[in-house]
TrEMBL record:
The chain crosses the membrane at residues 12-35, 47-67, 79-102, 114-130, 164-183, 189-208, 241-261, 273-292, 304-322, 328-349, 361-385, 391-411. The keyword Membrane applies. Pfam families: MFS_1. CDD domains: MFS_SLC46_TetA_like (cd17330). Its main location: membrane. This is MFS transporter. It is a multi-pass membrane protein. Keywords: Membrane, Transmembrane, Transmembrane helix, Transport. Residues 13-414 form the Major facilitator superfamily (MFS) profile domain. The keyword Transport applies. GO terms for cellular component: membrane. GO terms for molecular function: transmembrane transporter activity.
């Protein structure tokens, strides 16, 4: 059976995939507002917070390409299920950190502060590492969507998937704020994340259809498309990989440092950090929903990619100010810019290579993203200690480079 026959957009509902992406974002965003505070309660600081963030992409660097190639061979659904079970297991490990004694293994001094490396912190690192090793859900989900999308539905489908994830990032901080106000709120929030992941397992198992037979098509039987040499020979893939790396680098400077910036310089608590991400994600949902539905009829993907990149450069500039109004203007620009740029980029990326290569291409792309995330998350914590909010200018400069390199993208006409 050919993949084209299996992957008819008319035969597939993307609702289960959207739901899986929604709950994946929800499960993580629920703990996002208080994670930096939890790391500090366990003895860490901004450096440890950055290192903890880098553990996930470091192990995803190992697991992503393997899971991507497996999905080309045995099907997307099985790998998505494996990834979701891994996420569930990681949250269960995370919960253990709340119940072990605060044994200190060693400590060091950074900027005159004593930093403790405790048993709970080690368990958090193990949890994030395990999730990263099995974390092929995003790249495989992108490959799944590429399988079932036609040229006419591709842009809308990737916009819907991004909207589903951003909806999770809206609901998550709201739930976190409500639960955190109760006794043992942090523990309850992690338990909720585990339950959400369990729901994801059931959705994939019982509602998600397989998008791919796992059988090579006639054009790829002679040359296994998931090998590195074959992938790098695909037209435009090298430049898309460079862009993938740069985009992730810019965003991970932000993700590594904004919660620290909010806590230390803006003096925000979790109840104030949550609304910021809610506004940001809300604007993104509007942009990726009705916004893209309208704009896709008037502009091509490359034009939307360029426009979004420009807005993101302006957004990072706003974050260098400490004025709350300007920072919230930055949140709106983030939602608009990323809402245009990222779905358009993914839509362009999904046209590169054959359906039988998409799992491998997305897997290698996730490795580039993981490598950039490691650099951004680890370096971000160190750099913030010296530059503070001026680090966001590094993100702006990186997005400017994305804008320049993106000028060389070739966009196929539908």
């Amino acid at each position: 059976m050919s993949d084209d026959k299996i992957s008819s957009d008319k035969k597939f509902s993307i609702l289960p995939l959207l739901t899986v992406n929604f709950i994946g974002a929800l499960g993580y965003s629920v703990i996002l507002p208080f994670l930096v505070y939890l790391v500090r309660d366990f003895g860490g600081n901004e450096i440890i917070y950055g290192l903890m963030g880098a553990v996930y992409p470091a192990f995803q660097l190992i697991g992503g390409p393997i899971l991507g190639k497996w999905s080309d061979k045995i099907g997307r659904r099985k790998i998505l299920l494996l990834s979701q079970i891994g996420t569930l297991a990681s949250w269960l490990i995370f919960i253990v950190a709340f119940f072990v004694p605060h044994i200190t293994f060693f400590e060091f001094t950074f900027k005159e502060d004593a930093i403790l490396f405790t048993l709970p912190l080690i368990i958090l690192f193990v949890a994030r590492a395990f999730d990263g090793l099995t974390g092929g859900n995003i790249s495989v989900a992108n490959a799944y969507l590429a399988d079932i999308s036609t040229p006419q539905t591709r842009k809308k489908n990737f916009g819907k998937m991004s909207s589903a994830m951003n909806l999770g990032f809206i609901v998550g901080p709201v739930l976190s704020g409500l639960i955190a106000a109760t006794a043992s709120g942090e523990l309850k929030t992690v338990i909720l994340s585990a339950f959400i992941s369990l729901v994801g397992v059931f959705i994939i198992q019982f509602l998600l259809k397989e998008s791919k037979s796992g059988e090579p098509d006639d054009n790829s039987a002679a040359d296994l498309p998931s090998s590195k040499p074959a992938i790098w020979k695909v037209k435009d893939v090298p430049i898309m990989m460079v862009l993938y790396f740069l985009i992730f680098l810019a965003f991970n400077f932000f993700y590594a440092t904004f919660p620290i910036y909010a806590a230390d310089i803006l003096q925000w608590d979790p109840s104030q950090l949550g609304p910021f991400f809610t506004v940001l994600s809300g604007v993104m949902i509007f942009t990726q929903g009705p916004g893209l539905n309208y704009l896709n009829d008037h502009f091509n993907e490359k034009q939307l990619f360029v426009a979004g990149s420009i807005l993101l450069i302006l957004m990072f500039g706003c974050l260098t100010f400490t004025n709350t109004i300007i920072i919230y203007v930055g949140a709106v620009l983030f939602g608009l810019g990323n809402g245009l740029m990222w779905p358009s980029f993914l839509s362009i990326f999904s046209t590169k290579g054959t359906k039988n290569q998409q799992g491998a291409i997305q897997g290698f792309a996730s490795s580039f993203g993981s490598f950039a995330s490691i650099i951004g998350l680890v370096a971000g914590g160190f750099i913030f200690g010296y530059l503070e909010q001026r680090i966001f200018m590094l993100s702006a400069a990186t997005m400017l480079l994305v804008l320049i390199v993106g000028a060389f993208i070739n966009v196929e006409k539908d």
